Amino acid sequence: MNRGLRPVGLVSVVVPARNAETTIATQLAALGRQSYPDPWEVVVVENGSSDGTGALLRRWQERMPRLRVVTVTEAPGVNRARNIGCRHALGEYVLLCDADDVVAPGWVAGLVDVLRTCPAAGGALERRLLNGPVALAARPPKKSAALLDTFGFLPYPAGANCGFHKEVWSRLGGFDESYRGGGDDTEFFWRAQLAGFRLAFAPHAVVHYRHRGDAPAIVRQSYGYGRSHPKLYRDFAGAGMPSSPLADAAGAWWRLLLHAPDLLGAADRRAALLAQVALRAGRVVGSARHRRCYL
Questions:
Q1: Triad 228, 232, 233: Cα angle to 5°
Q2: How far apart are CA 120 and CA 153, in angstroms?
Q3: Largest CA-CA distance found in the chain, in angstroms, rounded
Q4: Which of 60, 81, 177, 181 is the most buried (most CB within 10 A)?
Q5: Is the pTM of this model over 0.90?
């Protein structure tokens, strides 16, 4: 940690949780092992779960004094949960992670260290610890030593590993709750940068990131991502987000057609193909819905 800088007040970790009974205990245990020495809290937004997440969280409050739980029963959605968590957060800095991942012991300290000199930051995603070969084939690991840059526009962190000064969230009016199933974190951090807030990478803030592990979940997630891309293009083309050339889309569909036999092959190859088909199909539907061609 950078010692000569002014002390930071309370830090808030916001965790959206929906039907997370099988994973959130592992994440809370990881948060309990953090090396950060100064005051901080955990705000879990129980986002309309139909499983035992709520009861599990109540048990954890008995053993984790810094844990607060906010229950939401209407209109679930990850950005809605993030906004509610930020409203309840008492900290000067807000850190976000997900209920199905596992933060490394230095995660809070790593993000706070960068947020001392920068209003927004994102950390590294480690993708191998929690994922098997099928999940990794569907979403091959990317370089972890940098922010994401999928669209050739502005970098952005994953909502599963990021932080910002609460003032940034307030001045932006929060996360855009119309983004559901994809683009939710990208939109926020692009809007932050366009508003003049700097974004930095926090290399020592590591999250072990969990992918979807079965074919139906992989398809649903990839389709949601693809459907959000034309919406991002609608909202940011005027700021310089490049288009998706039709020739590139045609080439991608042709390559997918050539790999059609993979549907009858090994599970990992099948998952990789289904993920890409779902992503491209989502872009087609999103283009029609948002009246912006981004294929």
A1: 120
A2: 17
A3: 60
A4: 81
A5: yes
